[in-house]
Amino acid sequence: MFPEVPTIAESGYPGYEDVTLNMLLAPAGTPKEIVQRLHAEVVKAYWQPDLVARFAKRGIELVASSSPDEFGQLIRSEVSRLAKVAKEARIKAE
Q1: pLDDT digit string, tens, across residues 11-35
Q2: Residue among 42, 47, 37, 36 nearest 69 (CA)
Q3: What does the angle CA 21 – CA 72 – CA 16 come to, to the nearest 5 degrees?
Q4: CA distance linking residue 9 with residue 68, whole number of Å
Q5: To the nearest 10°, the Cα dihedral for 37, 38, 44, 48?
Q6: For the CA atoms of the chain, what is the radius of gyration?
Q7: Which of 3, 7, 11, 55 could share a disulfide with 60, CB 3.0–4.6 Å?
Q8: Does pTM top 0.85 for this prediction?
């Protein structure tokens, strides 16, 4: 979008990633068929061409999970990864 502005990697931070997660979560124990239906409807709404185009204009690539199980695994892995970061940095919950 801005060819005159160096990328984050070119600025000395290779491997940097900026990810924003937007989630729709259901209470634990929600029947699997309801979770599957919610996922299908959200994904259908998410891929509306006008929505994709609005985000693309801002340089944002939309990505949707392929299944509720895949997204659950992503959440678990992020919690584990960030718990390690917090422990190494001696960050305590208040």
Answers
A1: 999 998 888 888 899 999 999 999 9
A2: 36
A3: 40
A4: 32
A5: 160
A6: 18
A7: 55
A8: no
